[in-house]
Design a protein that fits this description.
- This protein has about 170 residues and is an alpha+beta fold.
- It has helices at about 10-20, 50-55, 65-80, 100-105, 145-160; strands at about 5, 25-35, 35-40, 65, 85-95, 115-125, 130-135, 165.
- Strands 1, 2, 3, 4, 5, 6, 7 and 8 form an eight-stranded antiparallel beta sheet that branches.
- The protein is globular.
């Protein structure tokens, strides 16, 4: 796990909300504080779907909604003349990309053992930070996937020209 401070918040927000930069993620949850505080639970609602739709991997491939689907809603909640007082997004790397993170280094951990590679994005009214995390289906002694995810996030931010400093 690493903590990164984004040094150009405006540029980062443009990439987060106004581009496809983070569209390879799912949204677990969001909290946005502007004139009200809005909470979004990214878990898909089973009651909304028919049984056939719920079981159809083409219609509902993940338990969480895709960031690209909820990004416009989050943008609408944040845009305006006032800066939000705070927000928090918990994003998960889309599962099909987990294997490529694990393949980037030497580890005996298998894809099925990793529940999620996570980005916690938090703005407190002054600073914007990203904290990485890894969730496993069971306890593992090998922390290589954590290190690989941290390295992948650094490379991702650099490739997308998002300036940061490590905390």
């Amino acid at each position: 796990m690493i903590a990164l401070k984004i040094t150009n918040i405006k540029q980062f927000m443009g990439k987060l909300l106004g581009s496809e930069t983070f569209d390879s993620f799912l949204l677990e949850e969001a909290s946005i504080s502007t004139y009200n505080t809005f909470f979004i639970d990214g878990h898909q609602n089973k009651d909304f779907y028919t049984t056939e739709e719920w079981d159809d991997q083409d219609i509902r491939p993940y338990d969480f909604s895709m960031w690209k689907t909820l990004r416009p809603l989050c943008f609408d909640l944040i845009k305006g003349t006032h800066t939000p007082t705070a927000f928090r997004f918990v994003l998960h790397l889309i599962p099909r990309h987990v294997e490529s993170v694990l393949k980037s280094g030497e580890t005996s951990i298998e894809v099925r053992q990793v529940k999620a590679f996570v980005l916690n994005i938090k703005y407190d009214g002054t600073d914007l930070t990203i904290v990485t995390g890894t969730s496993y289906h069971t306890f593992l002694m090998d922390k290589t996937p954590d290190n690989l995810w941290d390295q992948t996030v650094r490379q991702f931010l650099s490739k997308k020209e998002i300036a940061y400093e490590e905390l």
